[in-house]
Amino acid sequence: MKRSPFNDGWQFREKVNPFAELGGEVAPYTDIVVPHDAQIARERDPNGDGAVAYFPDGAYQYRKLFNVPAELAGSRIVLEFEGVYRDAMVYINGAFAGQRPYGYSGFTIDADQFLLPGEENLLEVEARSGKDSRWYTGAGIYRDVWLLTGSDVHIPTNGLRVSTPDIDAEGAIVEVEIVVENTRNRPVTVDLEALLANPAGAEIANGTARVTIAAHTTSVSRQRLYVADPALWSAESPALYTADVNVRFEDDPIDHSATKFGIRRLQVDPVHGLRINGETVKLRGACIHHDNGILGAATFAAAEERRVRLLKEAGFNAIRSAHNPLSASMIEACDRLGMYVMDETFDMWTSGKMPNDYSLHFAEWWERDVEAMIAKDFNHPSVIMYSIGNEIPETGSPEGGLTGRALAEKVRELDPTRFVTNAVNGMLAVMDDIKKLAAERGAGADEGAGINTLMSGPGEFMNMIGASPMVTEKTAESFGVLDIAGMNYLDARYEIDKELFPNRVIVGTETFPTHIDVNWQLVRENSHIIGDFTWTGFDYLGEVGIGRPQYLLEGEAPTHGGPFPWIAAWCGDIDLIGNRRPASYYREILFGLRTAPYIAIQRPRPDGTSFYAGPWTWSDSIGSWTWSGNEGRTLTAEVYSDADEVELSLNSTSLGVAAAGPRNRFRAEFQVPYEAGELIATAIRGGERAEVYSLRTATGVPVLKIEVDPGVPDDRLVFIDISLADSEGRVFTDRDKALTVQVSGDGELLAFGGADPAPSSNYAGAAHATFDGRALAVVRRTGSGPVDFLVSADGVAPVETTVAGLHYVEAL
């Protein structure tokens, strides 16, 4: 079927009571373009829930008027929604056309029965969000919408599936599975022509099969095509092939479908671990939420591509979608750029975590939602495993064993080519027992304590529980239904299970960022442990302040989460606008991807306070040696290095040598009286000076600097980095300014903000302050012409740039 974007021409408003409108209280609609996050521009409630970043609950209405050409009468017309959050209700010309409770599943609406060809038609969508998740979800039509049109004999949505069941050094068998639907009142016979093209676009294989489809049914055709000397897909070499299928009736083409795919072989066992194309791979993983920072939940292909690229540049080779299926555009980016994917189904099954969450719909909808995820993922080589859940309370019970087995077998039935895991939290599986133990030990885990509160307690307590026979016993069945045992914060089990369950393969589905040195050593030294997924790769909205540094006065106790106006979790290796934080460089060194040291400086501690860091908290540090107003004050410099020792010098004066490397957790600390200039760290290997890294103080008068991100191929969005810098580009991280931006020409401002985890303004306006001297503007193109961008601030000269127009219009 012909697939066309259906994102323009929408209107939106907060849902109103129709009886109120009868009384004259008419709420106006606003023109918008989807993808659209209905919540991100709303005013936050200081008395609201920090789990959802203090955004209020809401219900929303969308509408779109459109014409259906008269010549489409009798044609097949389908609407495809990639995601509507949440409880989507769809109406066409006033008639109920369909629904989808789960906010992360793509779904289709058979629209032709409701449409009036040759006339104007009204499409309406309603959605809501509130008390249904433990993080910021956004709301509304936040992913792409498509219009599919075709003949009464056609390939339906996701009707083309490609797999590579047989691969050796000489060639590969590519199985092309084609579903053909016939909505006629009589049987029809068609020819299906399949063509394969290599990554360069040259045709390399083809085949034709004749298929008869009975009236109002579907038929499946499978063609096995041989590809000689295939280029194998991997994260290091993401080679993509193309499969094209033409449907011909009496030699006339009546439908067409195409997909990208990769040729690669997956194997997993406790001796070799995970093998991709015969080579053992360790997963350097990042958990990510679905929001895109200052864009909120709106899912733009360019933003997803940028996120994958930044994660890969930071050293990751795998992502886990936490805790819901990834967008199609992000998986496509993982295919192109080379990133392994663990796609996850649900955060809950039948046991709810929030009053209005998906557990209310699980029993009725889970099979259809699993089907939707796998239909989306099947052709994508980046997806190597499915997770059937995250921290599911039932995993410690026989009922959970039954549900887990049903989910795992459903996944295998739909896609036997990939592995099944489940992100099991052993502490949650024995929660009732933990509360009793915690109370006995005075840990304060009363009956209202949540899992995150318990996990922020002492690490030795967590390890004791995770390694206990109680967890072994209660998780036995839930782990037993899996191909790979996913473990959240259960690193204490890694080596124990090698003896208890010699056939068990383990992946750290979620781990503390502060434990990466210990965890990665376990991954490297044990073949049955295939990787580690840190919480988190990118900072995200909601679960506010779980990674925040806390400065406590005497007698104060640390708290879980951050008060208003906190908006972000503040635990990502990369911040909300895409800048790497110190933990990211530390991780890169541990992964063996960086030999140069890295210097991070702890922010000056307020007088009379002590510093508290929870398990998701990195030190409160940034990579800067610009600290005006602190001259003579002693600052703590952290130096990360895999070398045995490092030397730190300031303005050519040595401050001494300290141990680093594995024996010192890859980290040395120095106390440095602040003085402007250059701070240099030198790695010392075997007594010899080796790699160096330096920080220099920003000097002179700050100027505004703007830089257009060149790495995003989808030109609908333009990402513009803004900083306060000196003449050599060094950022003034010690001062921030309120900025104002203006966009003219063929563009409009979509989002503007900084990485501040507790901002005073939202991201929808044209004014926002920098954070640590940086900000980001995201501009949406409204045409194919150039876009003019201007940024200004008090006390500095404004600066502007023009982003060239497009050479094509299709992306709009």
From TrEMBL:
Which InterPro entries does the annotation name?
A: Beta-gal/glucu_dom_sf (IPR036156), DUF4982 (IPR032311), Galactose-bd-like_sf (IPR008979), GH (IPR017853), GH2_Domain-Containing (IPR051913), Glyco_hydro2_dom5 (IPR040605), Glyco_hydro_2 (IPR006101), Glyco_hydro_2_cat (IPR006103)
Which residues are in coiled coils? Answer: none
Domain Glycoside hydrolase family: residue ranges: 717-801
Residue ranges of domain Glycoside hydrolase family 2 catalytic in the record: 274-434
Using the record's annotation, list all stretches that form the DUF4982 domain.
633-689
One Pfam short name = Glyco_hydro_2
Q: What is this protein called?
A: Beta-galactosidase
- Gene Ontology annotations of biological process type: carbohydrate metabolic process
Keyword terms of this UniProt record: Glycosidase, Hydrolase
Glycoside hydrolase family 2 immunoglobulin-like beta-sandwich domain residues are 164-264
Please provide, alphabetically and separated by semicolons, the GO molecular function terms listed in this UniProt record: hydrolase activity, hydrolyzing O-glycosyl compounds
What SUPFAM superfamilies does the record tag this protein with?
Answer: (Trans)glycosidases (SSF51445), beta-Galactosidase/glucuronidase domain (SSF49303), Galactose-binding domain-like (SSF49785)
Enumerate the spans annotated as Glycosyl hydrolases family 2 sugar binding domain. 59-149
Name the family the entry cites.
Answer: Belongs to the glycosyl hydrolase 2 family.
